[in-house]
Amino acid sequence: QVQLVESGGGLVQAGGSLRLSCAASGLTFNSYTMGWFRQAPGKEREFVGAISWGGGSTRYADSVKGRFTISRDNAKNTVYLQMNSLKPEDTAVYYCAGDKERYSSRWLRVGYWVQGTQVGYWGQGTQVIVSS
């Protein structure tokens, strides 16, 4: 059974930083592109960014580019989301996700529309609140 377990969420002031972690089990972690999504109250879930199975490629939504960094440690089956210069509009539940297909690079293509239907595995989410 595949499990993705996020941690690291919390309350932070605007301008601050948080690092989210997502520990994976039950899948061949190093063969999946992993992503982060978020959902703010009253809004649709949106793509935040993704990292390739080997960690060599990343892609970010324009809203977080330059502030957020995704990394992974395949030896630990863990993917990270480092969030810096946080803004109140970053307040959301953040979800870790794994692509449905192994060795897929689609989430990494600039301009590609990442859809929730392409996600094979979801974490339970972790709340991030950024106060002004």
How would you describe this protein?
The chain has 132 residues and is mainly β. It has strands spanning 3-7, 10-13, 18-25, 34-39, 46-51, 58-60, 68-73, 78-83, 92-99, 119-122, 126-131. The strands form two sheets. Strands 2, 4, 5, 6, 9, 10 and 11 form a seven-stranded mixed β-sheet that branches. A four-stranded antiparallel β-sheet has the order 1-3-8-7, with no helix packed on it. The termini are far apart. The mean pLDDT is 96.
How far apart the termini lie comes to: 40 Å
Number of strands: 11
Mean pLDDT, as a whole number? 96
The residue fraction in helices comes out at under 10%
Radius of gyration from the alpha-carbon trace, in angstroms = 14 Å
Secondary-structure class? mainly beta
- From the spread of the alpha carbons, the general shape counts as globular
Query: What can be said about the biggest beta sheet?
Result: 7 strands, mixed
The H-and-E topology, N to C, reads as: EEEEEEEEEEE
Low-confidence stretches: none
Strand content: over 45%
Secondary structure tally, helices: 0
